[in-house]
Amino acid sequence: MKKLLSILSVACLTLFPSCNDWLDVTPQGQIEAEDLYTTTKGCNSVVGGIYYTMSGSALYGQTLSYGLMDVLAQYWDLSTIPDHNYYNATQYDYTDQNVIGTFNNVWSNMYQAITQCNAFIYYSEPYKENIANYDLLLGEVYGLRALAHMELFEIFGPVIHTTADLQKPAIAYRTNYNNVSQGFDTGEVVLQKAADDLNRALELLADDPIRDPEVGRQGDLNNSVLDYQDVLNYRGARMNYFCALGLMARLEMLRQDKTAAYKYATRVMEETEDIISLIDKENIMNNNASSVYNFSTEMLGAFYVNNLYDMTDTYFGMGGGYSSQDKGAINIDNNRYEALGTFIYNRTPDNGADIRYTYWFIGNTEHGNMDFMKVKQATERPGMTEPYAYYPEIPIMRLSEIYYIACETQIGVDNTLALQYLNDVRTTRDLTPLENVSDDETLLEYLVREARKDFIGDGRMFLMYKRLFYPIYTVAGRTVQPNDNIFVLPIPDDEYEFAGIEKTTQN
After folding, report:
1. Which of 22, 36, 69, 455 would be a feasible disulfide site paired with 460, CB 3.0-4.6 Å?
2. DSSP state, 386?
3. What average pLDDT score do residues 236-257 get?
4. Domain residue ranges in the chain
5. Which among 42, 19, 53 has a CA at the least distance from the CA of 303?
6. C-alpha distances out from residue 120 to 34, 152, 158, 310, 332, Å
7. Quick one: fold of 17-314+388-499?
8. pLDDT by residue (tens digit) across 10-25?
């Protein structure tokens, strides 16, 4: 955050390669940063730069999805590899240089994305009448700014045991395009400003094409290569209306306002009908040409990550290049695969019939280990015809999370309804519906177990444990008791000096 960039290198950072073409005919050095905001193509390119930052490996392209956040959630047993890069992370040793460096990068890259958002809002406003689909672009930017601050709050902010903890300093919510130092806002202020941004996004995205069932997640409203606009193509892989609405439900859970969260969750369910849906289990189980192992039909919003499959092949050793000496990889060998079954997918009340366990982890005869199909590029399979591939996407939010939010908000209010929401997800995973779970504590435990199965590879589980201040059950069969020191990642030391405040320590 200290090294705020003027307008960053966004001219050629676009979400889809085809949108770079217009830059190829422009002489280098003749485009001033501000000039980008005077044209539709320029504004599309600038917003593409924000996505490029947020989808990079330092953020959602790895660290905040299947990378270190999943390590903190104890999906992988590294107890026998003490020299692994992430071994100390499994011990919640936040003095380890690998952990410090990784989350310092999260902090700096997220604030870089925020700076890009603020620059767009500042520079583009005078030219808004000249920019096609300006409301869509601006709505995305407000939504992305809210998401970035919410993620920083969830990772680096205090544990919210009661609403009183929302008065504790958390992070700086930056809305101005400048490099002026700013103190940390309280959690209450951060979340209110995020709510303001999301509500502004919802206003601007009211006519989002994704709301039209004929367009949906993957439609392309471009009809000319010359006038091509990123913002009109594949709305599901962007910050869109449904995603912003879903993030409001997540935000209200952070504010501990379950009534408001339930209102937003049910709105998402109603408004996404016939457009975004929970996965069709038959589609997965029949192994047909349209099978999407990443469950993209459930993504309310996502980041398109061009090199995702190259990164995941290396990280999980799926590309044939894994070495047992690679201390930065997660090799899903038989032991790790069996641990996933024993301690995640086969725990009471289930027995392993879950299609996520069956189809997300598939043996590869070439290297003898399991491929993690949720984040692996689809390949042609026997008897299949095109299209058999699906896009490289990392979810911002899934529809299943909305059902989990609805379930949690009804626990202790209407447990029959809470169980119904949980079963709605379970049945799409080929699991038997649960019955007669009236005890609040047991129902919450089953909800957490279900979310843990679903969120693997998404980076959400550790943050759910933090919000609930819940014990973390590991794939080694032990339980890590909740503790503020575990759940609050350290803010870079020099940020306290920059903000002009005294560093605090957890109890």
Report:
1. 455
2. S
3. 98
4. 17-314+388-499
5. 53
6. 9, 20, 30, 31, 42
7. 1.25.40
8. 433 333 333 333 223 3
**Length of the chain as a residue count:** 507
Comparing CA positions, the residue from 138, 118, 144 lying closest to residue 204 is 138
For β-strands 370-372 and 361-363, DSSP reports them as: antiparallel
Helix (H) or strand (E) holding 200: helix 187-204
Structure-token match 């779970």, residue found? 437
Interatomic CA distance for residues 449 and 468, integer angstroms: 13
Whether residue 174 contacts residue 115, with contact meaning beta carbons closer than 8 Å, is answered with yes
Give the list of residues 6+ apart from residue 264 with CB closer than 8 angstroms, or none: 245, 246, 248, 249, 252
Which residues are paired to 302 by β-bridges?
395
Written in H, E and C, the secondary structure of 220-248 is ECCCCCCCCCHHHECHHHCCCHHHHHHHH
3-class DSSP state for residue 283? helix
Cα gap 285→355, rounded to integer Å: 7
CA 116, CA 145: separation in Å to the nearest integer? 9
Q: Of 243, 262, 268, 283, whose CA–CA distance to 428 is shortest?
A: 283
Backbone angles phi, psi at 427, to 5 degrees: -65, -30
Q: Look at the block and give the residue holding tokens 């695969």.
A: 337
Residues 34, 206, 110: CA angle, nearest 5 degrees: 50
Whole-angstrom distance, CA of residue 277 vs CA of residue 83: 43
Residue type for position 7: I
> Which residue bears the tokens 């079954």?
341
Give the position of tokens 């209200």.
252
Between CA 68 and CA 59 the distance in angstroms is 10
3-state secondary structure of 313: helix
CA–CA distances in Å: residue 175 to residues 27, 97, 178: 33, 31, 9
pLDDT tens sequence across 70-111:
999 999 999 889 999 999 999 999 999 999 999 999 999 999
pLDDT tens, position by position, 119-144: 999 999 999 999 999 999 999 999 99
